[in-house]
Amino acid sequence: MQRDENIASQAYLLLDYAQRLDRHREGRRAVHIHLSRLKPQNRREQHIRVAVNTFQELVSQFDGQVFVLSNCDLMFLFKDAKISDIDEAVMRLRYLFSEDPLAQGSDEEDLARFCTWYNIQANYALFLEVVEKLYEEEQRRERRLAAAAEATGENETAADDRTPLSPEQLGRLENFLERADLSSVLRRQHICAVIGENPPQSIFKELFVSIADLAETVLPDVNLIANRWLFQHLTQTLDLRVLKLLSRADDSDLFSSFSINLNIETLVHPDFIEFDKSLRTGSRGTIVVELQPVDVFADFNAFMFARDFAREKGYRICLDGVGINFFEFIDRKKLGLDLVKLIWSPELSNEGNPARREEIGAHIEELGKSRIILSRCDTPAAIRLGQSLGITMFQGRYIDSLLQSQRSYIPAPKMPPRRRAIAR
Q: Are 241 and 249 in contact (CB under 8 A)?
């Protein structure tokens, strides 16, 4: 990510902008989103992009400016807008991070931890003081990092023993992928219907490339995910390679009844069109395209276009990787989704909170019990819990073990042959 060049200077640009507002305060307000308080895994580059895009449509509408500080905080300044206009975007962003402790709770204290509002027109001096402190904190942080790097001979991004993926290595890896047979790292995991005590019945299988196995095979000493921008590019390359693999597959198991996890950009790529042309008659309706929430909400207009394009051709759309807190804000019908994949969590049981359990059950009912897949089911208890909530489709290691122990499971009827895609 270009944070070192572009984002590190944002505190200075914010300070400069705030100082120039001294004579133009009328109608000005600001909201400070404290993304720096999120857990590290929730403030990666793609999350920051989503946050920025959430406010981007409001910039021209309300003469706004968005600043992203080096600690990942956002400051959005705007003019002549109702608080409710901006608060809607803030709450959408809060829902997106609802799996993080920072975005949980509904008390005023909880809301204040996520964001701070400023009335620049009425309290300009206070706002300017806050901005000055943010700039000073960033300067101190940069000095500390520089001193630490000089003292240890390490840079800020040296996270583990492996070398972060470089552009040159990515280029070599892409060249390798052009020639490589990905079938050795292509994995399959079944999504099954489990009714009562009956054995699991396969509905379709998810196809995905094992990134760990790929790294071990090609670049064992390189951390493929250390550079999030390069890793994102790698996943797009893998999408296209898998599509080509499936287009040429001779394995009848890859002809129908499968799901693949794709980037939204891939759905409108020429290679996806070629993949679509290679499909056998009737197979599209058995193929599920899985999309990630971060990808969907990073550019909602792009999602809607890609979704409509895929559904018009007959593919089904699944929102993958949905946690329990974010799950309650998903409106399947409004989003135009066929399926939602809910991640199993101990919170689903809510044994000590019957009211909360009722809320979850009611939302499952609203989304459609037959449209939800409970994933990461590693124990029999996970299946029982899902069944108690009305869920009938499951995925996970426990399901895998059941299928392996009884080779006689009944697969779902397959539509005419066709190639399959991948999930990461």
A: no
Q: Are 189 and 392 in contact (CB under 8 A)?
A: no
Among the residues of 205-292, which ranges form H helices?
A: 211-218, 228-247, 264-267, 270-278
For 378, other C-beta atoms within 10 Å of its C-beta total 14
The answer to whether residues 364 and 384 touch, using CB atoms and an 8 Å cutoff, is no
CATH architecture of 3-152: 2-Layer Sandwich (3.30)
Is residue 349 within 8 A of residue 385, CB to CB? The reply is yes
CA 419 to CA 415: how far, in whole Å? 12
Burial class (CB in 10 A: 0-12, 13-18, 19+), 19: exposed
What is the tens place of the pLDDT at every residue in 73-112?
999 999 988 888 898 889 888 888 888 889 888 778 888 8
Domain 163-405, classified CATH 3.40.50.1820, yes or no: no
**For residues 20 and 15, what is the distance between their CA atoms, to the nearest angstrom?**
9
Which residue matches tokens 């003292």?
Answer: 151
32: tokens are 């400070």
Q: Are 390 and 363 in contact (CB under 8 A)?
A: no
Please give the model's pTM, rounded to 2 decimal places.
0.61
What DSSP letter does each residue of 31-77 carry, written as one string?
A: EEE-GGGS-GGGSSHHHHHHHHHHHHHHHHHTT-EEEE-TTS-EEEE
Per-residue pLDDT tens over the stretch 378-416: 888 899 999 999 999 999 988 988 888 765 444 444 444
Structure tokens given for 348: 């689903």
Q: For the chain, what is the mean pLDDT?
A: 82
Residue closest to 287 by CA, chosen among 419, 423, 424, 392: 419
